[in-house]
Amino acid sequence: MAYIMVDTETDGPIPGDYSMISFGAVLVNEKMDQTFYGRLRPISEKFIPEALAVSGHSREETLTFDDPEKVMRDFAVWIQEVCKKDRPVFISDNNGFDWMFICWYFHHFTGTNPFGFSSQNLGSLYKGLVKDTFQTFKHLRKTAHTHHPVDDAKGNAEALLTLKKEYGLKIKL
């Protein structure tokens, strides 16, 4: 299996009605040198200014971003290239949110999702390892959480690597 850590930035709470503005992905391994960054033109007239502000982009700027279909097709090609013969596994720090957008965009724009029908949650994984549902993994990040999705995906990938090295997580990366 090839773990792909993903982070999304959006202009609202759900796909379809609102848009995924950008996303980042990193193949989780020691080098973390294989990343993907996509900036997507909005698919809806609706947006929540406060949600969009988190991304650091203005509405006018997002209107110049790339065609969502092209970005999702490029992302699918990237996944195929970095995973080679391994099955890609989607993981994020908030998979309920990030997965919802990535899955919807893949199915809507390409007709299929290379990740299949499931995802994994880094936060839940950490809580299980430390046996405490009140704990958070975020102190394990090395890369600052900037809301640039590649930075955020890298920080989360670093945390996953720490779970393997220092917490004894059995995972093949």
From TrEMBL:
Domain 3'-5' exoribonuclease Rv2179c-like: 3-160
Pfam families for this protein: Rv2179c-like (PF16473)
GO molecular function ontology, one term from the record: nucleic acid binding
InterPro entries: RNaseH-like_sf (IPR012337), RNaseH_sf (IPR036397), Rv2179c-like (IPR033390)
Name of the molecule in the record: 3'-5' exoribonuclease Rv2179c-like domain-containing protein
Source organism of this protein record: Filimonas zeae
